[in-house]
Amino acid sequence: MADPKGFMTTPRQEWSRRPVEERVRDWDEVYVPGALLPIISEQADRCMDCGVPFCHQACPLGNLIPEWNDLVSREDWRAASDRLHATNNFPEFTGRLCPAPCEAGCVLAINQPAVTIKNVECAIADRAWEEGFTPARPPERLSGKTVAVIGSGPTGLAAAQQLTRAGHTVAVYEKDDRIGGLMRYGIPEFKMEKRHLERRIGQMLAEGTKFRTSTAVGRDVPAAGLRDRYDAVVIATGATAWRELPVPGRELSGIYQAMEYLPLSNRVCEGDLEVSPLSAAGKHVVIVGGGDTGADCLGTAVREGAASVTQLDIYAQPGAERDEDSDPWPTYPKIYRLSAAHEEARELRTAPAADADARLFAASTLRFTGDERGNVRSLHLVEVDERRLPVPGTGRALPADLVLLALGFSGPDREDGLIEQLGLALGPRGTIARDDGFATNVPGVFAAGDAARGQSLIVWAIAEGRAVAAAVDRYLTGSSRLPAPISPTDRPMTV
């Protein structure tokens, strides 16, 4: 604890964002380049080095947060990087994409603004790359065992890196043409530039991990044959089966799933397309769903030049402060948060029908109506009460030329036939069933991440990847020294 009074003398200061008018004209990350390092040592000083650091319990990775806060406050960046990477394979991803449940569990957050843990993490990761503190770590010797990892999202990549470093020969199979899963084609460039992803892929290649892109297991490669070729298989395909909105007019043209829309804008940034075929340019856009994916659609539509963008959230607008009865510390509270995309929508007034930013809260979609050519033109909605029942007399219509459904995911996609070909058992929620050791009902086949856990956060995905790697290593060799931060039954802290 470098400054025992830091939490009393230093106010919370976050990484500043670029001006809205500037950043909506490009796809670069929203933060001011270079603005984080000058403030981060003092922010790390705010950490109280608690006797019982609840930030550890709030983070499924078990990140050693007080330790690397202290090291950053002393500007010992190499040691801070070592402590951070001891529990997290990809801190530059979580430092940008994780909603920071660790900050909700910060002891300081009981009555003050929490330590800027997420910003400190990102600063360490970026400094580590700049200073060369993250070299490739190929194994000293090979085990002679082979592992196939299906899926290259954060779970698959974490599992692959851990197993490669343990000495196993690992091949990652990805159905898309590039590695990264939803981090590649689901997360917009303005939230995380893909250079961060490319850098980690390069590190993994240097360590010996092999990648097989444009290969859908079950369709391009028989799943049973893959199982026969490898000593173990890890399924980390994610939960990509999107939820539908079964209301009248859903069949109209112009209504798409968020994950049909977002990948196309990412391909524009990759240089594959000049313009997205689903571009929001000049259109009245309505996003159904109030979560992070909906916010990603919002920021994307604003950058594409939409005429208007409105986001519907079926939940009532939360308050600005934690409700100690329903969301007591140290659980992750449901409070009003203003993401970069919502800040942009508020300043640009993209949704005249909304109150503060682009969101309409406590709003439920009733139906869609279209023109004579079958194109959607309006979304009809109604306000709902706390039981999600319609409030009489509150119905209205919004102009809608493009509707994006961001309603979450129900489980792994079964279109490729992977689950059926392997004969995998499913749980009651449609996710892949597994035992306490991440093993499925098929010998030698393990499941991890959203495909087995259900839709979750990136920090849980990486924790799953690290934990399943330890389980596979134990299966192959009889024991394992790899860390296993969570079990399959662990869940976020709740009341």
TrEMBL record:
> What would be one Pfam family of this protein?
Pyr_redox_2
Keywords for the protein's UniProt record, in alphabetical order: Amino-acid biosynthesis, Glutamate biosynthesis, Oxidoreductase
Where are the annotated coiled coils located? none
Name the Gene3D superfamilies on file. Answer: Alpha-helical ferredoxin, FAD/NAD(P)-binding domain
Q: What are the 4Fe-4S ferredoxin-type domain coordinates in residue numbering?
A: 36-69
**Pathway field:** Amino-acid biosynthesis
Q: Which InterPro entries match?
A: 4Fe4S_Fe-S-bd, DPD_II, FAD/NAD-bd_sf, FAD/NAD-binding_dom, Glut_synth_ssu1, Glutamate_Synthase, Helical_ferredxn
SUPFAM superfamilies reported in the protein's UniProt record: alpha-helical ferredoxin, Nucleotide-binding domain
What's the protein called, per UniProt? Glutamate synthase subunit beta
Its organism's taxonomic lineage begins at:
Bacteria, Bacillati, Actinomycetota, Actinomycetes, Kitasatosporales
